[in-house]
Write a structure and sequence with these properties.
- By secondary structure, the protein is α+β, with helices and mostly antiparallel strands.
- It folds into four domains: about 140 residues, Endopeptidase. Chain P, domain 1 (Glutathione S-transferase Yfyf (Class Pi), Chain A, domain 2); about 60 residues, no CATH class; about 160 residues, Neurolysin, domain 3 (Orthogonal Bundle), CATH 1.10.1370; about 250 residues, Neurolysin, domain 3, CATH 1.10.1370.40.
- It is built from 27 helices and nine strands.
- The strands form three sheets. Strands 3-4-5-9-6 form a five-stranded mixed beta sheet. A two-stranded antiparallel sheet has the order 1-2. The protein has a two-stranded antiparallel sheet with strand order 7-8.
- Strand 7 and strand 8 form a beta hairpin.
- The chain is globular and about 80 Å long.
Length: about 675
């Protein structure tokens, strides 16, 4: 039964979700009914007696299941941003049902036969570029996901997919529970030495909300990062670092070691079943990189260039810590603390000096102003759209002609029901149907420092770039202008999806852009030029170490997913240590493990794709070089980026789109030059 609250299209302005009337108990019956309705749609396409055509088969398939897609997007977005035990139980129940339904489509012989008929006659169909791409993707989604398997292998594939959907959910639930469980209460004021006033005030306020006396610190980033960066007390930094690094690695009910081994083995088994050597071979066939060999060559080439710089930076940091505090051996809990001190010494730059210039509201308005100057977008805060939490801000997005472009949700602060990190998501994609351009509903979710009784939310510079990063993804979603929902917005190859997000970070380092929003929250003074120069000068500080860190995560991902000998792995920790041997700088800590909390690859969609952050950095450095040559607000370049990248989604091969914007293939030297590695 579809409950009244979840009947779509919603009877709301812009067809937005009516969060205020949706109850937890509405989801399960609605999703079950929506699956049944979607199955009927699929059956009607598969059993159509008309000759298979692009319109009655491929296009009909792409527009099917709209009710189900809307309701599940609401459900899973809330399960990430505002979850509770009830939602988590529902997720465990519906995930296998959705996995089964997905298999019902790709393993439907009659449906595949119709798609294959259209595919085999495509040269005679006079399709547009976008239609041709959709046909290619639909055909591959069948052939790559078991349509050609024998019946017994299809049964095996269904079982694997059902298991995987449960395991990845459980992995994420364990990490959220671990994050929420840990608390470090400080009662001795001397243990707060070194911490900024705002951090102390926030910790005191958090303790008060939990009816505790003292200062409370957690593993949420706005609490965790300032503590390990500024606290003088080395033992407490160690305690917090080990707590963060041991999530899912305590041999208790929240342990993820078995989940990791089961997930990678099932993914490998699935890939073999489908005729691929490894999970990475399966995934990368549909990426710009195409093969694990390309990814490993790319990563190792960067590693060769970054490692000498990283080792030199680490040695300098060790010497600095020894001179300053007689630290004999630099540990993981020392890195952020002494890096910040060294940065202050080298550049006279302190995040605490910068933060007053980065009031959250000003930074958000700055992102909006930059989007207006580049892409002619206007953002108007509205209160006529339902929210799923009082912290969420809602905006109506229009262009300069007054046309409605998108609904934009922004959710900035940590809370118990929200997972850590920052991400962009969608409640509804853009598409064109019956000559109507149905516009998207886009959201960004972050975990920034909350306002306190005496201070507004003041962002670190890293949080500023994070906001711009997620806003770049949002622009990709909001400006989408394609016919088909499955090709719209961020529905692109995963090593291309980070280009719009990472390029937006570049404006945070430019004087012309900073002057639009970096004003002191008390005096209104524009950020002084000397601070702007220091931000730019420090942009490549410890770039070698940062590059090595990113590469280590990508290589660990490939280690798990491009490995044909997974049966030999019995210890997650031992395997991970082996993968990190060429990239580790700090001494090993037995209590910690990266893999058991590596949500990007074991819960999110980045398995065999973590390298894409670095891959897209090559694209974004080269693309921003083009902007800099013409002027960072040059309309001609901005229009080309909008017209050939942001609006096009996955309608064409990404390199084709990139070259149409840039006029050439990306030059890797732009990244190495920006990083100070050449």
């Amino acid at each position: 039964m579809i409950t009244k609250a979840l009947t779509t299209p919603f009877k709301t302005k812009y067809n937005t979700p009516p969060f205020e009337i949706i109850k937890n108990e509405d989801y399960l019956p609605t999703i079950k009914t929506a699956i049944a309705l979607a199955k009927k749609e699929i059956d009607s396409i598969a059993n159509n007696t008309d000759i298979p055509s692009f319109k009655n088969t491929v296009e009909a398939l792409d527009f099917s299941g709209e009710q189900l897609n809307r309701v599940t997007s609401i459900f899973f977005n809330l399960n990430s941003a505002e979850t509770n035990e009830t939602l988590q139980k529902i997720a465990q129940e519906i995930s296998p049902l959705l996995s089964e339904f997905s298999n019902d489509i790709t393993l439907n012989e009659a449906l595949f036969k119709r798609v294959k008929t259209v595919y085999n006659t495509k040269s005679t169909l006079n399709l547009t570029i976008e239609q041709n791409t959709l046909l290619e993707k639909k055909y591959k989604s069948f052939s790559r996901n078991g349509a050609n398997l024998s019946d017994d292998k299809k049964i095996k594939l269904r079982a694997i997919d059902k298991n995987l959907s449960n395991l990845t959910l459980k992995f994420g639930e364990n990490i959220l529970a671990e994050t929420n469980k840990f608390e470090m209460l400080i009662t001795d004021p001397s243990d707060l030495a070194g911490l900024p006033e705002g951090t102390k005030e926030a910790a005191k306020q958090l303790a008060e909300t939990k009816e505790k006396k003292g200062w409370l610190f957690t593993l949420d980033y706005p609490s965790y990062i300032p503590f390990i960066t500024y606290a003088h007390n080395r033992e407490l930094r160690k305690k917090l670092t080990l707590a963060a690094g041991s999530k899912g690695f305590k041999n208790d009910s929240l342990d993820n070691q078995k989940n990791v081994l089961q997930i990678v083995k099932l993914r490998h088994e699935r890939a073999n079943l489908l005729g691929y050597k490894t999970h990475a071979h399966f995934v990368l066939e549909e990426r710009m990189a195409q093969t694990p060999e390309t990814v490993l060559n790319f990563s190792n080439e960067l590693l060769i260039k970054a490692k000498p710089a990283a080792e030199q930076e680490f040695k300098s940091l060790e010497n600095f810590a020894k001179k300053l505090d007689n630290i004999d051996r630099l540990e993981k809990w020392d890195g952020p603390y002494y890096s910040e001190k060294l940065k202050q010494k080298l550049f006279s730059l302190d995040d605490e000096v910068l933060k007053p210039y980065f009031k959250l509201e000003n930074v958000v308005n700055g992102a909006f102003t930059i989007a207006n100057k580049l892409f002619d977008l206007n953002f108007k805060e509205i209160n006529t759209v339902d929210k799923y939490h009082e912290d969420v801000l809602t905006y109506e997005v229009t262009n300069t002609a007054g046309d409605f472009i998108a609904v934009f949700y922004a959710d900035f602060f940590p809370r118990t029901g929200k997972r850590n990190g920052a991400w962009m998501t969608s409640y509804k994609p853009q598409y064109i149907k019956e000559n109507q351009n149905s516009r998207p509903h886009i959201s960004i979710v972050c975990n920034f420092t909350k306002p306190t009784k005496t201070k507004p939310s003041l962002l670190t510079f890293n949080e500023v770039t994070t906001l711009f990063h997620e806003f770049g993804h949002a622009l990709h979603g909001m400006l989408a202008n394609t016919t088909y929902p499955s090709l719209s917005g961020t529905s692109v190859f995963w090593d291309f999806v980070e280009l719009p997000s990472q390029i937006m970070e570049n404006w945070c380092f430019e004087k012309e852009a900073l002057e639009l929003f970096a004003t002191h929250y008390q005096t209104g003074e524009i950020i002084p030029m000397d601070l702007v120069e220091k931000i730019k000068a420090s942009a490549t500080f410890h770039e070698g170490m940062q590059t090595l860190r990113q590469l280590s995560f990508g290589l660990l991902d490939m280690g798990w997913h491009a490995n044909a000998s997974l049966d030999k792995i019995t210890s997650v920790k031992a395997f991970e240590s082996d993968m990190f041997k060429d990239t580790s700088l700090y001494p090993e800590t037995e209590e910690t493990c990266m893999s058991t909390a590596f949500s990007h690859i074991f819960q999110g969609g980045y398995s065999s794709g973590y390298y894409s952050y670095k891959w897209a950095e090559v694209l974004d450095a080269d693309a921003f070089e083009y902007f800099k040559q013409a002027g960072i607000f040059n309309k001609k370049v901005a229009n080309k980026f909008k017209d050939h990248v942001l609006t096009q989604g996955g309608t064409e091969d990404p390199m084709t789109l990139y070259k149409r914007f840039r006029g050439q293939e990306p030059n890797p030297d732009a990244l190495l030059k920006r990083a100070g590695l050449i």
